[in-house]
């Protein structure tokens, strides 16, 4: 779903062929999992869901191409919208994304997203470029994002990312003391078969359904008594790749609410956010977010092909934890 014009938030989506014949409530619960079926039924009965321009009923059977519109009633959770334009030219921009800012509209976050904040930034400058994200960072990951501003640049950057031509480096703080100075984690990733959480990934057998090859190289930078600062270089680009690979070797990210914890813990966090709670989940974890920072991004200029490299230091919360907990052995 995509956000529409302000001030009212309207989320719209078109029914795909595979959903034809299912009921409205079944499709919404399967497609947009930030509400379960019971919660979606409540939203429909409250008149917040329309089908083809009219108020819908929960058990209506859908047809291919039906237009579904949803007007959420909630206040969005807190988000850090202080993005920083580090490099800006007609074809593309490189932007520093803070932690606690989701890339696109997702669940409770609709207007407080990286994409919408960047759109508003350019509107304030009197510009309306054709913005397109070439890649994404998880909501709690800080660091560098490259954003295309033309169709041609978007196509070129997408080809670079899918072709493995983009170099990325992350800083990560993990639980435990990592023994090996350097490791190459070459393990396939797929949906976690032992979890009820649909978005949770895990290292799985190579022949599993939906499995994807994945490789991450890690280097120890500093060791503390109970934590380690790493440089992580993903050689592939899978969902949650660094987080999954680090968990697989017994060293999950500090502050991670999804990996290294139980399903029950994560679902408790989700309910906390749905109830309007602070996404940093104060008092539950040693940090208010997972400590992963996209610090280096290198790619070819989408128009000239010239090599480009951008680097940015981690933010204050990350640096403060490293100073206190790493480098003391």
Short key terms for the protein model shown above:
globular; 26% strand; 16 strands; single chain; 21% helix; 2 domains; Pseudouridine synthase; alpha+beta; 4-stranded antiparallel sheet; 10-stranded mixed sheet; Structural Genomics Hypothetical 15.5 Kd Protein In mrcA-pckA Intergenic Region, Chain A; 329 residues
Structure description:
The structure is a single chain. This protein is 21% helix and 26% strand. With 329 residues, the chain is an alpha+beta fold. The protein has two domains: 11-70, Structural Genomics Hypothetical 15.5 Kd Protein In mrcA-pckA Intergenic Region, Chain A, CATH 3.10.290.10; 84-325, Pseudouridine synthase (2-Layer Sandwich), CATH 3.30.2350.10. Strands 5, 6, 7, 8, 9, 10, 13, 14, 15 and 16 form a ten-stranded mixed β-sheet that branches. A four-stranded antiparallel β-sheet has the order 1-4-2-3. A hairpin with a 2-residue loop joins strand 2 and strand 3. Helix 1 (24-31) crosses helix 2 (37-45). The chain is globular and about 60 Å long. The N and C termini lie far apart (49 Å).
Describe the protein's topology.
Blueprint: E1 11-14, H1 24-31, H2 37-45, E2 49-51, E3 54-55, E4 67-70, E5 84-88, E6 92-97, H3 114-124, E7 132-133, E8 142-148, H4 151-162, E9 167-175, E10 182-186, E11 189-191, E12 201-203, E13 215-223, E14 227-234, H5 241-248, H6 263-274, E15 292-300, E16 307-311, H7 316-325
Parallel strand pairs: 8-15
Antiparallel strand pairs: 1-4, 2-3, 2-4, 5-6, 6-8, 7-8, 9-14, 9-15, 10-13, 11-12, 13-14, 15-16
